[in-house]
Design goal:
About 20% of the residues lie in helices and about 25% in strands. The chain contains eight helices and 16 strands.
Length: about 325
């Protein structure tokens, strides 16, 4: 049994998760009854207060974790156990790794977290680095079909610092996208609240009045990097907020949906996309390293993005070093 009381923090990627599921992700061997008992007796606390297993957590919340029972040795065939092939695959995704941080190059089609019908996802693959305190922690999300840089924190302190940088909007995230048409002006900012509608596979984010119940403010800077005549544009996108599907919803809202997007696209964008898959790539992240100094990670183009670049004749060397240097943030 772990004899120490710990204080861990909820990552941006875990915003909205239930307390019991938060525990199960870190310590899969814990039963629901064990978590419920610890919560009922006040051993588990959220921001200093008692909490119920079904309570939803918010990013940045401090969780008091009491001493936990040890896991029983895993048995062969355990559904959580990774094969050697799984471990090799997880390690093959690493772009950068040190004592505090892991940066993965997440491929298109790989979900970050699991669901009812999703058994292969990044969260499961993190067992390749160990369990419990050794298990890396997600600190932000990418959509299933978005490729590119995904950061993980090694240990609670590193995860806390990384998650804090995302929560305080100190992380500079640069995405590349190919959209239909040519946005005008060529650079600027979309400041448009979004509201979640639908459930599961039918969930979408739609523009909303900021005063509407459930509406969340969302801000995205954009800059045009290159054009393919009037047909399509290669864009740099920088979200200042972290809403679900934010970039996809914002580009669709200004009339330039991202190509290869079956959810937010139009008949015209679907026709122009042809066989192309979602043309959205988390190209670069820059933020303070938990151990000091700056952490800058770039992900090479995914095969899906390479196909889009080849189709429209774009070349990576056309991109400015800082495409947002001349874009004034509204607030």
């Amino acid at each position: 049994m772990s004899r120490e009381v710990q204080t861990l923090y909820v990552a941006e990627a875990e915003d909205g998760i239930r307390l019991d599921r938060w525990f199960k992700r870190r310590w899969p061997h814990l039963s629901h009854i064990q978590v419920e008992k610890m919560a009922r007796s006040g051993q588990i606390r959220v921001d200093g207060s008692r909490a119920k297993p079904q309570d939803r957590l918010t990013a940045g919340a401090a969780i008091r974790v009491p001493p936990l029972p040890d896991a029983n040795p895993r048995q062969p065939g355990d559904k959580h156990e990774l094969t050697e092939r799984d471990v090799a695959y997880a390690k093959s995704l690493v772009l950068y790794e040190d004592d505090s941080v892991i940066a993965l190059n997440k491929p298109h089609g790989l979900a970050v977290q699991g669901g009812t019908k999703t058994t292969k996802h990044v969260d499961r693959l993190l067992s390749a680095w160990g369990e419990g305190m050794d298990r890396p922690r997600l600190v932000h999300r990418l959509d299933r079909d978005t490729s590119g840089v995904l950061l993980l924190g090694k240990g609670p302190e590193a995860a806390k610092r990384l998650a804090g940088a995302f929560a305080r909007r100190q992380a500079k995230k640069t995405y590349w996208a190919i959209v239909i048409g040519n946005p005008k002006p060529v650079s600027g900012q979309v400041d448009l609240a979004l509201k979640k509608t639908g459930i599961n596979d039918f969930e979408m984010m739609r523009p909303a009045d900021p005063k509407d119940h459930g509406a969340e403010p969302a801000e995205t800077a954009y800059a045009t990097l290159s054009r393919a005549a009037h047909r399509a544009a290669w864009m740099a996108l920088r979200p200042f907020t972290g809403r679900t599907h934010q970039l996809r919803a914002h580009m669709a809202a200004i009339g330039h949906p991202i190509l290869g997007d079956p959810k937010y696209g139009t008949e015209q964008s679907a026709e122009l996309s042809g066989p192309l898959r979602l043309q959205l790539h988390a190209r670069r992240i820059e933020l303070d390293h938990p151990g000091g100094g700056k952490l800058i990670v770039e992900a090479p183009l995914s095969p899906e993005m390479k196909a889009g670049f080849a189709h429209f004749g774009f070349s990576e060397d056309e991109a400015d070093e800082d495409p947002f240097a001349g874009v004034r943030r509204l607030r």
